[in-house]
Amino acid sequence: MSIVCRFAPSPNGNLHLGHAYSALVNHAAAREAAGTFLLRIEDIDATRSRPDFIRAIADDLDWLGILPPAPPRLQSAHFSAYAAALAHLEREGLLYPAFETRGEIARAVLAKEADGQSWPRDPDGAPLSPFPREAMPDSARRRRREAGEPYALRLDMARACTLVGETLTWREAIGGPLQPPQIITAEPARWGDVVLARKEVPASYHVAVVVDDAVQAISHVIRGQDLYAATAVHRLLQTLLGLPEPIYHHHRLVRDGDGRKLSKSTGAASLAALRAAGASRAQVLELVARNLA
Known about the structure:
Number of strands: 10
Strand order of the largest sheet: 1-2-3
Helix content: 25-40%
Radius of gyration: 20 Å
Strand content: 5-15%
Oligomer: single chain
Mean pLDDT: 92
Largest sheet: 3 strands, parallel
């Protein structure tokens, strides 16, 4: 089996130590197995992605000594592939346009919770939509969509799980990326009717990642533990779309001094800033190892 791994950052900020760790783990797995390490740029969100960050990603990987020789796959160049996947799901009757805004959903959930109801939330902590598909006839949804009203495309989770008709699992290499995988039971229903596309984003992360992994023949998806639960949705989509199933490994996260996962939004020190301050590659690797959780 040919091992193919990928590092897939979003170009909406500079890479930090957490990114460095994920890229290094992917690169090491490919090197150990005499396989292939690829770079993917997840720039599907055009409102946040910037070309200068794409160049900075390449500079950081080059400095770490792991820049792949092959050009990166840019999601923004493959919108048609994601549209085809969504069209397939829609033909199967698995998608529906939802017109409720995030604010309307939040207010409806708050009202229910104020009445003493315990409202379900997805594994990331976001409340499930309180506006089910059956609350509006499909004919009314079609009319509103054709009239040009803004909407999000949601997956009818109950129908999707019924169509699959089997217990979904995934293969998780728990001891390390190349260790024999264990079988994990997937529970996609915990995510409710997930959004698969919005007006401003032509496909969600869930759709884009399974399509890209299939097109790039990724054999091992190596990523952080924060995406562990989302694998259930990805296995569901792979099954519905007839896409191959990779082996997964969800690695530990690099955290800050307060135990929080490093992120761009919390101002984690970038690799570029560390370099500018005189840090060597060896010192960066030491920092990564020191802060693993």
